[in-house]
């Protein structure tokens, strides 16, 4: 069942659902899924803490001083909760290796840094964290579904513009705000929403995630303090959905809908998610019997036209830009190069990929009718043979145990330069038994230098 965006109760219904979430009513698989999101987030945040964007924001925060009550991943000492949300949010998105939801972009990097900073400061337990994260995640997905693809296609970065609402809802739920307070938090978040796709390939993209976390947390705190805001900000002719969408969207049913957390997608290539389908197709082609990269005559990558403003940088000059080049990503896969580690996208690797003999003959064919997460790759060999494959990266895992194993391995790879194996194992065990955690701050203490 759907309704038009001119209805006036969507904000209220989202707030009501978020406030009603309780540990006792969480689906059986939900805590495991939250724990997996948390493990993945800590891994990318820890490795991302060494990236320049994280260092710049830490240095800037130190200039402001403040009462340190919230941890900074990968670094000793503490900062204010708002500073920690900003710094950890940017660090966790610096690699572009964090999880994805088709309606939100990158939910964890917008929601978890805010929620963890607040939870640590309040001494919250793992169950409270899981309930609050689910509330924020599901709220963000509802808003993202309602605003529709037009919002992203017009150039808005949904991790920032939708993620901020998820962060506000999650923090408001952890603070146990009543429904009117939750609605104010949503209003204060929505009125701050900002982030443009034109920043992709620069440090401003992970900065978006940090700002979404910081500002969403701030919205919840200001609501708790009594700052007023429009309590129906998402609704009506001049509401968030009408102004930032195309004005023709329809609202998803809030009550009794499927759990969107089950549609969460994790990354195993350290590049923009919209390159992943093409990478997977290219890797299967490269594994074909008798395939040799030296035999490639030409390559055609078919992808949705809207990726042109996301991940179609033709000739990247930095490793960060290379993460947003579907052409280079496919060339890496076809050339037998690693696509799954952050080091594969270091600045000095740009020249390595550029030197692949077949790269000048790799072409991207844009097609508006293709699904956003779908790609088709044709490789023509010098013999005239064509090897083809296609993939759609919007395929959530069904096997939770198998996904857990992959995420544990990913965490060990990301954290290896920061923690010895014994500490990594203790941390993984603590995160994956989240419901038994009596103090979320313990998780930070397990990994801090």
UniProtKB/TrEMBL annotation:
The MmgE/PrpD N-terminal domain, residue ranges: 13-247
Pfam families given in the database record: MmgE_PrpD_C, MmgE_PrpD_N
InterPro entries: MmgE/PrpD_sf, MmgE/PrpD_sf_1, MmgE/PrpD_sf_2, MmgE_PrpD, MmgE_PrpD_C, MmgE_PrpD_N
GO MF: lyase activity
Xref: PROSITE patterns: PROKAR_LIPOPROTEIN (PS51257)
Gene3D superfamilies for this protein: 2-methylcitrate dehydratase PrpD
Coiled coil: none
Family statement: Belongs to the PrpD family.
Protein name: MmgE/PrpD family protein
């Amino acid at each position: 069942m759907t309704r038009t965006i001119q209805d006036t109760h969507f904000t209220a219904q989202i707030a009501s659902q978020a406030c009603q979430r309780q540990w006792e009513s969480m689906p059986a698989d939900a805590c495991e899924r939250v724990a997996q999101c948390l493990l993945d987030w800590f891994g990318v945040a820890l490795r991302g803490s060494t990236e320049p964007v994280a260092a710049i924001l830490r240095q800037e925060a130190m200039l402001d001083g403040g009462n340190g009550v919230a941890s900074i991943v990968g670094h000793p000492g503490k900062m204010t909760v708002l500073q920690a949300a900003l710094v950890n949010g940017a660090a966790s998105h610096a690699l572009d290796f964090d999880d994805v939801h088709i309606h939100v972009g990158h939910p964890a990097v917008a929601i978890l840094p805010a929620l963890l900073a607040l939870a640590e400061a309040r001494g919250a337990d793992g169950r409270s964290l899981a309930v609050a994260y689910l509330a924020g995640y599901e709220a963000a997905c509802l808003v993202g579904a309602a605003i529709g693809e037009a919002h992203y296609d017009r150039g808005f970065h949904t991790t920032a513009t939708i993620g901020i609402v998820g962060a506000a809802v999650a923090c408001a739920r952890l603070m146990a705000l009543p429904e009117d307070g939750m609605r104010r938090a949503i209003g204060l978040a929505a009125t701050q929403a900002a982030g443009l796709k034109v920043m992709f390939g620069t440090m401003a993209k992970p900065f978006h995630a940090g700002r979404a976390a910081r500002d969403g947390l701030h919205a919840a705190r200001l609501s708790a303090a009594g700052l007023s805001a429009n309590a129906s900000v998402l609704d009506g002719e001049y509401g968030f959905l009408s102004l930032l969408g195309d004005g023709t969207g329809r609202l998803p049913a809030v009550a009794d809908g499927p759990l969107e957390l089950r549609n969460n997608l994790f990354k195993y290539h350290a590049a923009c998610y919209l390159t992943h389908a093409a990478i997977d197709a290219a890797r299967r082609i490269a594994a074909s019997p008798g395939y040799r990269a030296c035999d490639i005559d030409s390559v055609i990558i078919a992808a949705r036209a809207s990726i042109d403003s996301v991940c179609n940088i033709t000739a990247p000059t930095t490793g960060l830009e290379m993460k947003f080049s579907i052409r280079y990503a496919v060339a890496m896969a076809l050339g037998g190069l690693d696509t799954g580690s952050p080091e594969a996208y270091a600045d000095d690797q740009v020249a390595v990929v550029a030197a692949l003999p077949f790269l000048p003959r790799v072409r991207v064919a844009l097609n508006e009718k293709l699904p956003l997460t779908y790609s088709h790759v044709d490789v023509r060999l010098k013999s005239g043979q064509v090897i083809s494959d296609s993939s759609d990266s919007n395929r959530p895992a069904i096997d939770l145990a198998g996904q857990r194993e992959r995420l544990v391995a990913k965490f060990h790879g990301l954290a290896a330069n920061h923690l010895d194996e014994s500490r990594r194992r203790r941390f993984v065990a603590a995160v994956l038994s989240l419901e038994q955690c009596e103090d979320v701050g313990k998780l930070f203490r397990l990994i801090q230098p």
